[in-house]
């Protein structure tokens, strides 16, 4: 397929978006190269979704051991071996790195190791070697953003959390987004004393208001200290290596062995030569793309976290497949950004799809929105001794009867909302929910047995 170029397609970044894009394009007969500066698999595989979920499982076993007493299990409490978990995780990640390498090799993709920099609309330089390609795809993802506070050098980011040594006795987590909340939950359940320091008045901006309050209460009940409206002034290091985080708003302090900053991520665009070539960025530093992921430079495209407003692995994968279809197929595949389901792996989990109550009331006539909700103790916890509660909520448009939003806090919420997302994309109405037979006894059946709308409070 190549004309005067070395490659039909050169992808910069071997994360979720880049690997999928390179592999699919090669499978369609294109001559493809992929450049990766670190380990194949990118954020998700190496320092994101996968290690985090493995640690969330580890944390769940700890909670399960405690709860099992209510079910008759007896014996001394087991101890937790952090080094063993780290080694097992590292081995699994190495295995996945190998799987990604093999997939690319099998598809015929040329993998180039090193840092890639644009050197013109059709050229990329890696280790002083210049490669040309008809199309170039930027899939360099994002990186944690730590604001400029005094003592910033003492803070670590989510990328260092998986290999901490030793396991922290006291962990301060700065931030209130999903990564902050997940890390707080996981490390708390693994045995750390966790304090969550959040500048704003609530956790998880962008999620449904009731979900935000409910999860904060559950995390607090579990033993995580949540300090809201707590802006960090600075971090100082004690002689013993521990840290003191000070607040400018309260005069209060938080002592910790590790300070994690999880205050958001920024697209990774620095050092790529984008400005020189004329690739435009928006105010947030993301590459500006059109509906076909094309940047302001005709031959340069961007997919995944570097340009997407939804920074999730399945979205990065979907964008990659749509782009390959545009460049090497019939162009029919498009990404539908509505009703993207998502989970937060706090303990308990959050699962959500569609509009929050706040979004629904602002997008439609406020009075046309009806809320159905339930807050209950699950069957499992009737014997476990845990005080954990579940929350389910449906946001419904009265006039159309359409279910606009579905939210849940409870075990396996992510697994549960995945199926509902299909129904909601198909336009499921509340009447359809009501006539669907539940699976008993489960948590998910609550969604099809919510009969009375909430009387607005
Ligand atoms: C802690 C954490 C937990 C997460 N959990 C979830 C989750 O549960 N579910 C979910 O859907 N999403 C989750 N995410 C988000 C998810 O990881 C990202 O949305 C996804 O990885 C984006 O894929 P990407 O291909 O755009 O970028 P990345 O996966 O970041 O890949 C970019 C790659 O480009 C490489 N690179 C960068 N610059 C260059 C260069 N100049 N030359 C060569 N290579 C370069 C990088 O080394 C990297 O490998 C999580 C993220 C984090 C940080």
Describe this entry's structure for a reader.
The protein has 13 helices and 21 strands. The chain has 457 residues and is an alpha/beta fold. The chain has 3 domains: 200 residues, FAD/NAD(P)-binding domain (3-Layer(bba) Sandwich), CATH 3.50.50; 112 residues, 3-Layer(bba) Sandwich (FAD/NAD(P)-binding domain); 108 residues, FAD/NAD-linked reductase, C-terminal dimerisation domain (Enolase-like, domain 1). Strands 1, 2, 3, 4, 5, 6 and 16 form a 7-stranded mixed beta sheet that branches. Strands 17-18-21-20-19 form a 5-stranded antiparallel beta sheet, sandwiched between helices. Helix 1 packs parallel to helix 4, helix 1 packs parallel to helix 9 and helix 3 packs across helix 6. It is globular, with a radius of gyration of 24 Å. The model has no long low-confidence stretch (mean pLDDT 96). The structure holds flavin-adenine dinucleotide (FAD).
């Amino acid at each position: 397929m190549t004309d005067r170029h070395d490659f039909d397609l050169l992808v910069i970044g071997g994360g979720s978006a880049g690997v999928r894009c390179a592999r699919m394009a090669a499978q369609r007969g294109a001559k493809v190269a992929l450049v990766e500066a670190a380990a194949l698999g990118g954020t998700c595989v190496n320092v994101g979704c996968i290690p985090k979920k493995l640690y969330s499982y580890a944390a769940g076993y700890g909670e399960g051991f405690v709860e099992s007493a209510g079910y008759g299990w007896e014996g001394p409490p087991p101890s937790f071996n952090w080094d063993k978990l780290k080694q097992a995780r590292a081995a699994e990640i190495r295995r996945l790195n190998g799987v990604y390498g093999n997939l690319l090799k099998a598809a015929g993709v040329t993998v180039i190791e090193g840092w890639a920099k644009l050197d013109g609309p059709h050229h990329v330089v890696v280790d002083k070697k210049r490669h040309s390609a008809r199309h170039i795809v930027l899939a360099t993802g994002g990186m944690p953003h730590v604001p400029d506070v005094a003592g910033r050098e003492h803070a670590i980011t989510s990328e260092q959390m998986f290999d901490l040594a030793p396991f922290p006795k006291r962990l301060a987590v700065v931030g209130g987004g999903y990564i902050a909340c997940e890390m707080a939950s996981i490390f708390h359940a693994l045995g750390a004393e966790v304090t969550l320091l959040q500048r704003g008045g609530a956790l998880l901006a962008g999620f449904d208001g009731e979900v935000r309050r409910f999860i904060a209460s559950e995390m607090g009940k579990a033993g995580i200290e949540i300090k809201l409206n707590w802006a960090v002034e600075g971090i100082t290091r004690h002689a013993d290596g521990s840290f003191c985080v000070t607040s400018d708003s309260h005069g209060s302090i938080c002592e910790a062995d590790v300070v994690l900053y999880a205050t958001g991520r920024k697209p990774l665009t620095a050092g790529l030569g984008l400005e020189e070539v004329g690739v435009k960025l928006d105010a947030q530093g993301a590459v500006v793309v059109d509906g076909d992921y094309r940047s302001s430079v005709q031959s340069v495209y961007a997919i995944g976290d570097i340009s997407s407003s939804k920074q999730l692995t399945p979205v990065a994968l979907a964008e990659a497949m749509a782009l390959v279809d545009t460049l090497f197929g019939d162009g029919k595949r498009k990404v539908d950004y509505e009703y993207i389901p998502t989970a937060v792996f706090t303990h308990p989990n959050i699962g959500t799809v569609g509009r929050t109550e706040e979004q629904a009331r602002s997008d439609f006539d406020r009075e046309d929105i009806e809320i159905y909700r339930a807050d209950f103790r699950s069957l499992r916890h009737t014997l476990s001794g845990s005080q954990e509660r579940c929350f389910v909520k449906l946001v419904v448009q009265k006039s159309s009867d359409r279910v606009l939003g579905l939210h849940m806090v409870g075990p396996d919420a992510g697994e549960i909302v995945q199926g509902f997302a299909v129904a909601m994309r198909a336009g499921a109405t509340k009447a359809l929910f009501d006539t669907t037979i539940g699976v008993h006894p489960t948590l998910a059946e609550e969604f099809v047995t919510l009969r009375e709308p909430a009387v607005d409070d």
